[in-house]
Specification:
The chain has 7 helices and 4 strands; from the N terminus they run ββββααααααα. By secondary structure, the protein is of the alpha+beta class.
Length: 165
């Protein structure tokens, strides 16, 4: 649903979309009751998870990638969590910075890798969800600040705890 209306001078110009509307002043008005936020679209979440996965596999921090593409690391976190949609030009910049094709971020998306008309299910990787969470970021930031030897010992302890709970 797309509705567009223009009013005379001094009045508000509004463009409405299915869930949100944007006023001329740039403030976002949501069709969702106050205090509630709409759920991100599954495709946005998938693309965000893929960005995080490729970034982690490339051994690039959020701060490094954000700097390389000219945004704040908080904005990159929003992309990775699927809270904010990634524009085509930004997705291109992310792919270029991570040295992967843009299509890599759509791999595994239902309908994208259709085989014989059947959609491939989304891969559920709990590690990426954890790394993208506030708790995961705090843990990683703390571990990175430790001396390498201590960090290795803590890693061994965690491995032992997961094998012998």
């Amino acid at each position: 649903m797309l509705a567009c209306s223009r009013w005379g001078a001094g009045r508000e110009e509004r463009v409405e979309h299915k869930r949100t509307s944007l006023t001329r002043a740039g403030s976002l008005k949501s069709g969702v009751p106050a205090g509630l936020t709409p759920e991100p679209h599954p495709a946005d979440q998938h693309v965000g998870r893929q960005i995080a996965m490729v970034r982690v596999q490339s051994d690039v921090s959020q701060a490094q990638l954000a700097r390389a593409i000219g945004i704040s690391f908080q904005q990159l976190q929003k992309y990775e969590n699927g809270r904010n949609r990634v524009s085509a030009s930004m997705l291109y910049e992310i792919a270029k910075a991570l040295k992967v094709p843009v299509g890599r971020f759509f791999q595994g998306l239902p309908g994208h890798d259709a085989v014989n008309g059947e959609a491939v299910p989304l891969p559920a990787d709990e590690r990426i969800h954890f790394i993208a969470s506030a708790e995961g970021r705090r843990l990683i930031a703390g571990l990175v600040q430790l001396r390498p030897r201590l960090r290795a010992r803590i890693s061994e302890l965690i491995a032992d705890l997961t094998v012998n709970p």
